[in-house]
Amino acid sequence: MTEEGSQHEEGFRIPPECDARYPSQHQTAADAPPGYITLFKDFFLQGNFWLPATLFMAHILHYYGFHISQISLPGMVRVRHFEFLCRSHDIEPTVEKFRAFD
Questions:
Q1: pLDDT, tens digit, 9 for 90 and up, residues 16-30
Q2: H-run or E-run covering 3
Q3: Tell me, what DSSP letter sits at residue 17?
Q4: Domain-by-domain residue ranges, the chain?
Q5: How far apart are CA 35 and CA 26, in angstroms?
């Protein structure tokens, strides 16, 4: 891992068991090793995505048939905002509740 990669890892607080890999200076998103996906830093910073993902996020992805790498930044913001609002009001977020806003 490069020095830059170490800084990213520290900033994102990704658990070691996720075995995150960080690109070197000249790598692109297409250079992810087999079995890995590329998630951009804005996904974490602006989308407020965390690892490990919540069960609610897993249910949303399953319901809509998306892989985590297919969800857009605005989509991530929408899902996470809904989840935060539910949890802040002691309401368990569910796909059914989320779909009320489809």
A1: 888 888 888 888 888
A2: helix 3-12
A3: G
A4: 1-38, 39-102
A5: 20
